[in-house]
Amino acid sequence: MLRLTDLALPLDHTPADLERAVCERLGIAAGDLHRLAVARRGNDARRKSAIKLVYSLDVLVRDEADVLARFAGDPHVRSTPDTSYKFVTRAPEGYEGPRPVVIGAGPCGLLAALVLAQMGFKPIIVERGKAVRERTKDTWGLWRRSVLNPESNVQFGEGGAGTFSDGKLYSRIKDPRHLGRKVLTEFVKAGAPDDILTEAHPHIGTFRLVTMVISMRETIERLGGEYRFGTRVEDFEIETGEDGERRLRGLHLSTGEFLAASHVIMAVGHSARDTFQVLYDRNVHIEAKPFAIGVRIEHPQSWIDKARYGASAGNGILGAAAYSLSHKCGNGRVVYSFCMCPGGRVVAAASEEGRVVTNGMSQYSRAEFNANSGLVVDITPERDYPGHPLAGIAFQRKFEELAYRAGGSNYKAPGQKLGDFLADRPSSEFGEVIPSYQPGVHLTDLRQCLPDFVVEAIREALPAFGRQVPGYDHPDVVMTGVETRTSSPVRITRGRDFQSLNTRGLYPAGEGAGYAGGILSAAVDGIRVAEALALELVPA
Predict the structure, then answer these.
(1) Cis ω on the peptide bond leading into residue 482 (within 30° of 0)?
(2) Which of 259, 293, 410, 484 is the most exposed, having the fewest neighbouring CB atoms within 10 Å of its CB?
(3) What are the tens digits of pLDDT across the range 27-62?
(4) CB 501 within 8 A of CB 266
(5) What is the pLDDT of residues 104-162, one digit of tens each?
(6) What Cα–Cα distance (Å) separates residue 177 from each residue in 63, 213, 527?
(7) Angle between helices 519-537 and 179-189 (to 10 degrees)
(8) Global model pTM greater than 0.85
(9) Distance in angstroms (rounded) separating the CA atoms of residues 240 and 465
């Protein structure tokens, strides 16, 4: 088959229009087109009066060789790539070698465990939080009753932080082996909607993620995998040989058990601060890395739809509109939108007592009243938290604690209207925009819980974003603080073999290790690390 990309048609086109456009583009007669299938569909809304749908298509034609010859120099006409997944190795029948251990059951750990199980290695998954349904109850406990469980919340538990998010399944990572397709295919098998295989910006939403995670767990267990929920890794047993090589020998668990383990995937997520401390104390190579800090900003979704789609706002094909914004400030900082959630809500995402953290979430329908996004400013170790590999964690904690106090010391989030933020005055009442964060928003002055350079940068960026998205800088727009968990503040450095630079048998992976950012990229990294571990156990 042929892969035809970047084919644009009007929003109201018919299936027949699509077939005609393919024939015209390839210069073939209608009878020479035998079949077509949508590989990817997005939209181009740069001209609101003429929004187009943009397709990548797999087409079967009568004379494929002739078409390829005529379009030899055209990057938009080529053979359809093979996106099927091929296992790098398999455990032999009756395999009795070491069982790999996966720490963490988020997207990275989940896909790593699944691939290992499919290859026959019967992994053990150690997860400090609870199974996803019990975890959901604990998460609602914070949102509805201001009761935080430090071991079961938005950050910790089966499914990871991505479970309580927009469920975005797209990424800008390089993926020459199409491992992202493997992830999406497994998600569909587990109950995700089929359209994630074709939409340019697929998403799932929290409710569907919950049932998918359960289905994938059942698959792993059926293949011999073993889950241990409510079990935190408290220490690592590392042995140094006569040659000076450090090698992992096992894990000390919160249950009091010692789990012998020589091959361990570290998929702990970006908020496992106590685990980062233990790794540092055990001299595992770890370094500070950049991340971002800021607020969540909320607009009525109808405002964003109108700003992006004009008269086509509300069109079912387009769905709820999103945006992606960035501004380089005079102070050298970059302000950008992060994890934009159309038709969703801002959620309480703290994992430590006495701290407030915000994040965004939406369901598959994206039908709630507000749109929200992180509005964050880049920070770097050299400039903002120098001198120690874990200094970024201390930086996060400082402003999360300030946000807790500014919000009233009861897990309410501090908030401020945009107009008041620009005018440098505290807010006292809401206007047209009502925030969605639970257990509630306490209006105040966000300067109390943000670095001065962040306040300065966001104040400069807001009018610029208002010029790009009309209504973005409306004075009644609400901002809530603080957004600190944009990515991991550390990198657990690894080599080409995916093992820790100085500790054999330890495989840092995913967002917590500093090698991914988001559900899809973390899941892909989990597959890559699982493959490297499997080849160490059973070379191809």
Answers:
(1) yes
(2) 410
(3) 999 999 999 999 999 999 999 999 999 999 999 999
(4) no
(5) 999 999 999 999 999 999 999 999 999 999 999 999 999 999 999 999 999 999 999 88
(6) 28, 24, 11
(7) 100
(8) yes
(9) 54
